[in-house]
Amino acid sequence: MTRLVRITTLLFLVCLVSTTAFSAPFEQLFRVMKISGDCEVKPAGARKFIKAQEGKAYAYGTTVRTGRKSSALIQLSAGNECRVLAKAELTMSDGITNPKLKVIHLTEGKIEVELEEMLTENTGNSLNVETATAVCGAIGTKFSCEAHKEQDINVVVFIVTHGSTTIFGMNYAIDQVSAGTALSVSGDDAGSFTRIKTLKGMFDIEYKDSQGNPKVVSTEKNSIVKIWRRRAKGGNLIIITVIVTEPDGNTLPADVFTDQLPEDKQDKLPIDGEAKPKRRIKFDGNITVTTTTSTTTTTTQPRSITPIGKGRSN
């Protein structure tokens, strides 16, 4: 083998490895692909939605929505995609301080996200899915997120099918939600309460204890973590109460601590001492489970629960 042939072969192998081991970084524009049914877009600053064009690139800041019995595929780059299912609405945004971070603001509906495993290691890109009750941080993973509203209650369901994600929100953080895990995060617009239920699998959730120190609690299927927030009478403090209910119905001692009152909650949170509103969450989301002994896919719906603060929630 001549020296030229050896060099040519080496370059070919390098290119081959590069194309298989490295993920394409997110592009400056995203594309709407594979439209089925009705799909509309509204560019940043526009007042009206217009019909989306399949294959066209759109600037971040654009809102995308699908109609009934419709779907579309959002492509951030080759191999990094977000499938938008029927009757969904979301806005694609850049990260405020990190241009390599892309954000999907999901208002309603369901999305399925698939990101290449090598994405972050080589490009620095990452993706957040922001909802009314939680933020999901994703790198090299596959997961779905479904958001809907019941009267004044926001309910979001996350299901991780490959890799892992982080999920966090006001006064709590879950560092790792692994494949095979599903959870719902509910709350009101005011932020007066958050309810986190483990629907499948297990994970650790971190919050503060009564001394203000970090505390980690392990959850499993049917575990429920409830977080109540009240404004202190006078001052800029918020009083936070965390109650953990185990799958068997046993309730752990409550943790109560204070924190600074967020500016955006100053006129929304109820004052400490006021009666807690009754919250009845009738739906935690549909969880699709494929058994190991059959190829049949079944869908289960959790039962209705009693009001938060009124005994065990199932």
Topology:
Elements (H helix, E strand, L loop, with lengths): L2 H19 L8 E7 L2 E4 L7 E2 L5 E2 L4 E4 L4 E7 L2 E5 L4 E6 L6 E14 L4 H5 L2 E5 L4 E4 L3 E9 L2 E10 L1 E6 L2 E7 L2 E8 L4 E8 L1 E7 L5 E7 L3 E8 L5 E9 L9 E6 L26 E4 L6 E4 L14
Parallel strand pairs: 9-10
Antiparallel strand pairs: 1-4, 1-6, 2-3, 2-5, 5-8, 6-7, 7-9, 8-9, 9-12, 10-11, 11-14, 12-13, 13-16, 14-15, 16-17, 17-20, 18-19, 20-21, 21-22, 23-24
Describe the protein.
The protein is mainly beta and 314 residues long. Helices cover 8% and strands 49% of the residues. It has two helices and 24 strands. It has helices spanning 3-21, 119-123, and strands at residues 30-36, 39-42, 50-51, 57-58, 63-66, 71-77, 80-84, 89-94, 101-114, 126-130, 135-138, 142-150, 153-162, 164-169, 172-178, 181-188, 193-200, 202-208, 214-220, 224-231, 237-245, 255-260, 287-290, 297-300. The N and C termini lie far apart (71 Å).
Which tags fit this structure?
mainly beta, 20-stranded mixed sheet, two-stranded antiparallel sheet, 24 strands, 314 residues, disordered C terminus
Spatial gap, N to C terminus:
71 Å
Structural class: mainly beta
Let me know the average pLDDT.
83
Could you describe the largest sheet, including whether it forms a barrel? 20 strands, mixed
Low-confidence blocks of residues: 4-21, 287-314
Q: Which band does the percent of strand residues land in?
A: over 45%
Helical content class: under 10%
| Radius of gyration (Å) | 22 Å
- The total strand number stands at 24
- Give the helices and strands as they follow along the chain: HEEEEEEEEEHEEEEEEEEEEEEEEE
Number of helices: 2
Q: Give the overall shape, derived from the CA principal axes.
A: globular
